[in-house]
Amino acid sequence: MALFNNFTRDKYDWRRELVVVTGGSGDLGNILVRKLAKNCIKVVSLDIVPPENPLPSNASFYETDITSSTSLEKTAEQIRCDHGEPTVLVNSAAVMNMASILDETEEQIHQVFDVNIISSFLLIKEFLPSMIKHNHGHYVDIACREVFAPGVNNVDYACSKSGTLALHEGLMKELRHRYKAPKVRASVIHLPHVKTAMVEKVKGSGFLKSKIVKPEPVVDLIFRQIMAGRSGHVHLPE
């Protein structure tokens, strides 16, 4: 654990931190946004669709296409104007299709990679410079078990999440050696199949149905990792 955190410690004042959550209107992101807000943490939700229900007073929503650098830059500028610089970034946005390599359209393939991995680079380029400057912050990304054992009919998803894992490893090294920001944390959360609209649509039938876990324990795991202020690989089940 000490090695993952570059043998450094950092303190977080949660009265002053600002957490950004992508995919904040989705099943997982929405629960996380509300849990953070419930714990008196200021949080910003990014999504292409607004939340179904009003957010708490310490949570804000910004309609944003995270696959577009133009949209993301405009939103980031507004966030800084309204709230200041984010200190924690949780990238929970994702898409998954259910089609074989030969059956999937080019448009579907591009969508999976644009949302699941290209957007990660755009988000990092937009929000991490301030974290690096202050040597303080945390980037949290979501991977999955398919990284280690790709399944049938979602190879593109597994490939995109393998990219998430490689990005995490490379980012850790660049933060330490290239940018000399050893206190900026990076975590990757390896999840099983979580009961969300996305997963239910493509995996909610057959033998996999019993293997799908509820989102609440997953959100608790992500929340604990954020609050700990530590880098690392986090797996569920732990």
From TrEMBL:
Signal peptide start and end residues: none
Domain of life: Eukaryota
Tagged with keyword Oxidoreductase: yes
SUPFAM superfamilies assigned: NAD(P)-binding Rossmann-fold domains
Keyword field: Oxidoreductase
TM segment ranges: none
Keyword Repeat: no
Pfam families for the chain: adh_short
GO function term, MF aspect, one: oxidoreductase activity, acting on the CH-OH group of donors, NAD or NADP as acceptor
PANTHER family: PKSB, RETINOL DEHYDROGENASE 10
Protein family: Belongs to the short-chain dehydrogenases/reductases (SDR) family.
Protein name: Short chain dehydrogenase
Organism: Colletotrichum graminicola (strain M1.001 / M2 / FGSC 10212)
